[in-house]
Amino acid sequence: MTLFNREIKIFSGSAHRDLALRICNAIGAPLGDAVVSSFPDGETRVKINENIRGRDVFIVQPTCPPTNQNLMELLILIDAARRASAYRITAVIPYFGYARQDRKDQPRVPITAKLVANLLVAAGANRVLTLDLHAQQIQGFFDIPVDHLYAAPVLIRYIRQKKIYNLAVVSPDVGGLKLASAYAEALGATLAIVAKRRISPTETEAMTVIGDVDGKNVIMVDDLTETAGTLTNAATLLKKYGAEDIYTGVSHAVFTDTAHERLKMSKIQELITTDSTPVKLDPQCNITVLSIAEVLAEGIHRIYTNESVSSLFEINAELS
Description:
The protein has 320 residues and is α/β, with parallel strands linked by helices. The chain has two domains: 3-150 and 293-313, Rossmann fold (3-Layer(aba) Sandwich); 152-290, Rossmann fold (3-Layer(aba) Sandwich). The chain is 29% helix and 27% strand. It has eight helices and 14 strands. The protein has helices spanning 17-27, 67-83, 112-123, 152-162, 177-187, 229-240, 257-264, 293-304; strands at residues 8-12, 34-38, 44-48, 56-60, 88-93, 127-131, 146-149, 167-171, 190-200, 203-210, 217-225, 246-253, 270-274, 287-290. The radius of gyration is 20 Å and the shape is globular.
């Protein structure tokens, strides 16, 4: 074995095996041998085919659609590793599903993000490594350490390479102001906000723009898009306020078919996202997918070697 007599073992569920392989390549470790399939009745079947007693185990599994299936796979993998006497189990969740159910915004509704946190701890996870939570207070839902990393260094590096002149960073809603402000500071750009109201879970209405975008090239930044309603409506409004080229940078692109249809008809020139989840591509949409494998690999390496992960918490951090 290696450091402190603990060998690193990285396993993956079926949610995003390609990302797990890229993380393993960045670390220089093989992907662990585990069977993740289904029994004839639909129950999830997991079997770890190698010795992990006393090992430092990392399980890579975003809880993206099908959310419940991928979450159950993660919980069962954690339980299998715990019962196989792993030294420490880290759940690597690049995209944390149920994150938007983080509060009671109506009577008689659950706080499902807290429930998922409880399930992960009960299954046997010792710590969690995740990326761009929809609400940072979700870290407090866990009674175990949570390392919360950002996709921003990867997106900012790509945007800088494009050398977009006269740039304004726009938040498509008030809730994303802090994220947009960090991007604006890193890119040396001005800042604007689109005020919106939500009509339904899949529809929003952009109402007004706060800030100057007239004659500017715009990059809208957000943590998550599913139907692309917020982004496309905001882009239409920004054009009315005089914006030139419009780009979007999104950490998690959990696309539905509706998203592709909206993007085809939108004013968005390019949507930039990451491979935190498997991204559905459409040849008629200009979508650029950047890999966050290096970011997650660096987080895994620092956890494994008991080094500080705090520098990776900075939203404009540069990878070493």
